[in-house]
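Q: Fold this one first, please.
A: Sequence and structure below.
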Amino acid sequence: MAQQTGATHDMPKVQDPILEQAKTETRFWTKVDKRDGCWLWRGPLHRGGLGNGGGYGRFYTKGLTVRREFYAHRIAYELLNGPIPLGLTIDHLCRNRGCVNPAHMEIVSVAINVLRGIGPAAQHAIVIHCPKGHPYDLLNTIWEGNGWRKCRECRRAYDRKRNQLPHRRIR
């Protein structure tokens, strides 16, 4: 008869993925305060300012070798609605970054999400006239390579003024 050493700690740990997922989901939902309207995340939040993900819920999953961090609102959405398509993101329609209620979320492109926000790109996008009052329209807008737009009428006036100056010779 073979002798047992009793050293079970040498055996690799085998996890049942379905059981682990159920445990993870249970742990996730214990951190959600479901009320009428927004479902508030009661777990840790990202620190940082508006552009650094500040205010979004953080959720950690434990694997055999790695601990991974996820946005809580994305987990809630995927648990109740399925995967988020590649290249798309979630827009919080309620504008509450701590909300994980999938009914308050919409799947959109990153560009749409940015333009719906309050950051600089959204603020510049709503400007429809140059500082001198000329319209930013199809005929009067010059698009720079860096994405900035310039007023064609103002550019012409600048070029006319510049061309009236005496030319200097460079030696």
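Q: Good. Now the second chain.
A: Here it is, same layout.
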Amino acid sequence: MNFKKIASILFNLAIAVFILKLGVDRYKIMETQDSVISRVIQPAGLLSLDGAEASLDKKPAVVIFWASWCGPCTVELARIRDSISSGELSPEGIVAIGIWDDMPAIKAAASERQYNFEVLVDSMGEAAQLFKIQATPTKAYIGSAGEGVEFSNGLGVFTISSIKDHLNNES
């Protein structure tokens, strides 16, 4: 075998191992999130925007973890807001939890951006830690029995249709 062929085989093998590792790591995160979601459905430390204790009692639900300073969160939540305003989505079952931020920043952002869905605050990050949230925005699709169905991070081309499908199919 010549050097180029060996190098090519090793390169392809390295890529395959890397892709496999990514898949295994993602599976482990999903498995961990799925295993905690039913007991985390009532995380401590959640507050409504008026400062009252709050809980995640809506099932099925789509919970969006976000931060006021997160650009992709602003885009994603504006798309959800606009879809609710147009009647494409119902606000029922949609909850945005502000994380890694303080109450005044989340309250100001929600008001300024005219969010028309439930907004809760988790300024200490307890819910984010329990759900194993590593990035914002992260969407947690919670089933009617409280089980974790799916988690997705970042902006999603199909976010609105995914939310609609999830809430309609789980009801």
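Q: Anything worth noting on the second one?
A: Confidence is low (pLDDT under 50) at residues 24-29.
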